[in-house]
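Hi R.,

Here's the chain you asked about this morning:
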Amino acid sequence: MRDKYIDHLKGILIILVVLGHSYLKKVGIFWIIYRFHMPLFFMISGYLFNNTRTIKEFTKRKFKTLIIPYIIYFIISLIVTNLFLTKIDFLTTINAFFLNGKYLIYVNNWAIWFLPFLFYISLLFYPISKIKDDKKLLLLTIILFIISVPTYKIFNKIYPNEFFPLTLQAVPPALAYMISGLLYKRNKDKIKITYNKKIVISIIFFILGIYFSLCTILSEIIRLSTYRYIATSLLLIPLILMLTKDNHNKIIEYLGRNTLVILGLHRLLIQVLMNYKFYDYLNSYNISYESTCVLISFLVIVIICLFNELNLYLKKRVYK
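And the predicted structure, written out as tokens:
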């Protein structure tokens, strides 16, 4: 049975992902969004992690649910890029597919880096999830957060311009956030906070989180290259969890159930709209840049959801 709270949370996060990829980075709120939306996705992955299968069965399932979609979305991106955007050569295609990460910029769909990354990070997390002692997991989490920044700096020296293969620089913090999600799952029933305390804690987290966001050098925010990034994400994540705990919306829950297809297609569609001057068209009606980004994000989500429903409908007709 699906957890509606998790679907609701994922729905909010995928909306923020689309907004973040709609070139909203010229607007201040973009930097706040980037502080918690991906860390929280990793926390959710840790929270939902199921290690009851054998490692062989687990690997097969993850390959089917992550790598196969990655291959499909990569092929779609490659075709659309060559037909409507720009021609790319064979070597560039190979690099983009196997190295992914920022290399996916060449097929105009760098958002799908998350799929192969989550595949191998899940394999690394599998033995960690078997650890029963929560104190050991907490210690490991702290160590991983501590080494996150030097790890980034080492990779940045080896691979300039952030062309990190397989997004390897993000392994320590991603594992740390996944362990955090697992620890929350194991101990959530022990955490009892009254509504008034939730409000006070949320306000404190919000103020501190915004403070760290504003203090961090903008060029370092999305690279996990400073401890302030980590501090901010750890402060803003509990705030988001508290604010979404008792709120449910069927539309947002629907988006949460369909994050994969939205993740796989939104960035490519945004690039196509931008290439065909759709941003300029909206701006010609004196619509503000911020409003344009929001409208584009809304349009992209609607198009993808309609496509998804049409696909499901056709599948049902075929299998009848």
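The chain has one domain: 4-319.

Let me know if you need anything else.
M.
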